[in-house]
Amino acid sequence: MSDAAPEPETDIVGDREGIPFVGAGPGDPGLLTVRGRALLERADLVVHAGSLVNSELLDAFCDHAEQVNSVGKDLEELVPLMRDAHEEGRTVVRLHSGDPAIYGAALEQMDALESEGVPTYFVSGVTAAFAASATLDTQLTLNEVANHVAFTRPQGKTLGPEEDHISEFVEMGDVTTCIYLGTHAVRETMDRLLEDGADPDTPVAVVYHASWPDEDVIRGTVADIADAVEEAGYRASALVVIGEAVTGGGYERSYLYGDWASGGSEDEATDDGATPTTEDMT
Question: pTM (2 decimals)?
Answer without folding.
Answer: 0.85
